[in-house]
């Protein structure tokens, strides 16, 4: 069974390649290296002892996508991570996001619809819920108009997949991530944010290491217990394992519908201050931070109802916030060491 992982040298992609190899799958990675590096292949090999196939390819080039599927005509499962994912950048450059996140999705699906059987796992996001009415968030919570073109590209991507699955042999699972954090315990792979990190945890670990002067906490006037916003931070290895379980569900034809959706979180919400305190506990370091005004577009809280993932998909996150923060800190020290 050869599995294609697009964006497989990225943060979640590389951790998923490791878990696929651990389950005995042969993996071929497509990545255009716009937000990753070939060095990540060495990290994967260091963990599993298996070197995945790798093709540097831009999925926006339809011809290249067609040629890839001709060459690798034994691919019968695709896990699709490749996408741009910076919320702020998407507001400034929406067309880059619609072309890169949706054009490429269409080209891949056009190749899969030619196959007698095709299994497709889509990297989606809880951002499609916007600020959900009720916590914890279930899969049938209202999908609202996301606050950014990035979020909208995930929402439209899901709709494209649903329409396509209805009309073709493609079976799909949409995985809506909450907030992925941490790194593989080996510290051979991890998050490699380019430039100034947009996300909370890499900014914290870089500040802890002294690369950033202090963390700006975006608002402490939210209607939450300590005033800072709440998210569901899930260890990236737990998230990667969920992808393998979802793929196996389709390969073994256990899916109940042509398209199934699962929220992937821990089910526990943590505030920004709680994440800071977790970092201080696991690192033994005091984290310098200041409270600044809210960031445009941020929501107050989001954490997952994990019943469906636990009971239908048969997956449950194992790591605690402290374990995830400790792995993120270990990785930061490794790459800066
Ligand atoms: C988390 C919390 C910030 C940075 C986004 C995307 C989501 C997914 C994950 C890709 C918020 C606060 C952050 C900082 C802060 N992306 N914060 N200071 O915005 O929940 O989710 O990234 O898959 O789709 O929407 O994640 O890490 O940016 O922020 O106070 O320097 O930390 O306000 O409350 P977010 P985040």
If you had to describe this structure to a student in words, what would you say it looks like?
The structure is a single chain. This protein is of the alpha/beta class. The protein has two domains: 2-181 and 234-264, 3-Layer(aba) Sandwich (Rossmann fold), CATH 3.40.50.720; 200-231 and 267-303 and 318-336, Alpha-Beta Complex (UDP-galactose 4-epimerase, domain 1). The protein is 41% helix and 18% strand. It contains eleven helices and 13 strands. The chain has a seven-stranded parallel β-sheet, sandwiched between helices. Strands 7-10 form a two-stranded parallel sheet. The longest helix is centred in the N-terminal third of the chain and has 19 residues, at 94-112. The protein is globular, with a radius of gyration of 19 Å. It starts with a strand and ends with a helix. The model has no long low-confidence stretch (mean pLDDT 96). The structure holds UDP-4-deoxy-4-formamido-beta-L-arabinopyranose. UDP-4-deoxy-4-formamido-beta-L-arabinopyranose binds at residues 85, 87, 125, 127, 177, 179, 198-200, 203, 215-218, 229, 231, 272, 295, 298. Belongs to the NAD(P)-dependent epimerase/dehydratase family. It comes from Flavobacterium aquariorum. Its EC number is 5.1.3.2.
How far the N terminus sits from the C terminus, by CA atoms, comes to 38 Å
Spatial order of the strands forming the largest sheet = 3-2-1-4-5-6-11
- Kindly estimate the percentage of residues that lie in beta strands according to DSSP: 15-25%
Name the CATH homologous superfamily of the largest domain: NAD(P)-binding Rossmann-like Domain
Which term fits the overall shape? globular
Helix content: 40-55%
The number of E-state strands comes to 13
Number of helices: 11
**Which CATH C-level class of the largest domain is it?**
Alpha Beta
What binds here, in terms of ligands, is:
UDP-4-deoxy-4-formamido-beta-L-arabinopyranose
CATH architecture of the largest domain: 3-Layer(aba) Sandwich
- Given the helix and strand composition, which structural class is it? alpha/beta
Q: Could you spell the SSE succession in H and E letters?
A: EHEHEHEHHEHEEHEEEHEEHEHH
Number of domains: 2
